[in-house]
Amino acid sequence: MLHLKFSYSFTETPEAQHQLDNPLFDLLAAIHRTGSIAQSARHLGLSYRHVWGALKKWEADLGQELIQWERGKRARLTGFGEKLLFAEQRAKARALPHIDNLVAQMEREFALAFDPHAHVITLHASHDLALPRLKEFMAEEAKLHLDLQFRGSMECVEALSRGDCLLAGFHVSEDRARGSLTQKAFKKLLKPGKHKLITFLNRQQGLMAAPGNPLAIKGLRDLVREDVRFVNRPTGSGTRLEIEQLLAAENIDSSRIRGFGDEEATHLSVAAAIASRQADAGFGLAAAAAQFGLHFIPLLREQYYLACLKETLEEPAIVSLLTLLRSRRWQGAIAGLAGYDADHAGNVASLKQVMPWYSFKTRK
Q1: Bridge partners of 204?
Q2: 253-264 as b/e: b if 16+ CB within 10 A
Q3: In the chain, where are the structural domains located?
Q4: Interval 167-222: pLDDT, tens
Q5: Residues 6+ apart with CB under 8 A from 364
Q6: CATH of 86-364, one of 2.40.50.1070, 3.40.190.290, 3.40.50.300, 3.90.950.10
Q7: Residue 12 pLDDT > 60, yes or no?
Q8: FRET pair for 258, CA 20 to 30 Å: which of 2, 60, 171, 307?
Q9: Could you report the per-residue pLDDT of 295-319, keeping only the tens digit for each?
Q10: What is the DSSP string of 223-239?
């Protein structure tokens, strides 16, 4: 059995996108994607000889072949090599939010150790692929330290109410009608006049399926088929709320969906489960599907907000953050993330402007 040993090092610039990298799996992923040892070597900035030698060494160490290759044909991973790659991707997708949380805690303590007056913004946020980019962008552009902790959407807003964070990141779909599940989840947590919402990003969510969509999944009603295995997000997450709201609108009984109770913590771990053939479909971000080369069926647009107390908007660090979010440089920082746009990023809105039910007077 292989054993793991973790360590950490200091860097001059943030490297949130490069946690838990390993040369073996970089090689396997490149060959799986390109079907060519030569192209993989060029992509990784290595020589053909180095890549070939490294693969042979790993095969000797592991006692099994990793690739199948003949001259004139595409290189491909063996069954063992593919299984190994998918296992690493799935495990890493599950672990990365916890690793990111640990890194954030340590970086915060080190930042305060060097400068007790450092501008540290504590953000508890629903999982999002752009947030690590925001952390790096803030550090480079304004010397702001983002203490980023990933949580479920409702848990984040609850943490804001307790004073555990300065900002709470959550997302809601465009379906926010009175009586919706969105209203039931958020109305009791956010208070008009007390909280404000900062627009962060717009995202696209939908169904993810295996590359090429071999089961011909076209929409929500296909999820009740006996041959479709679903993988879900946890209760309390904004994405779980959205899929349940979509199913309710279509009068689809979730108990008929095979695997509806099987949960993965993040969009990436859902995508990894589908890529590794542990499931056939899941609901999540277009960007997560694109990262794993999955088929994607768009179902809704949603807005991601950063909630805060009204008085927090006057703090210098938050004023700087708003300026950064409104810049074209931030637009460029998220370029390449499928299904994302930063239209209106940095705009501040009241709850009544964003959540229509706050405009109704409630009976005493």
Answers
A1: 301
A2: eeeebbbbeeeb
A3: 21-77, 86-364
A4: 999 999 887 767 778 888 888 889 998 999 999 999 999 999 999 999 999 999 99
A5: none
A6: 3.40.190.290
A7: yes
A8: 171
A9: 999 999 999 999 999 999 999 999 9
A10: GGSTT--EEBPPTTSHH
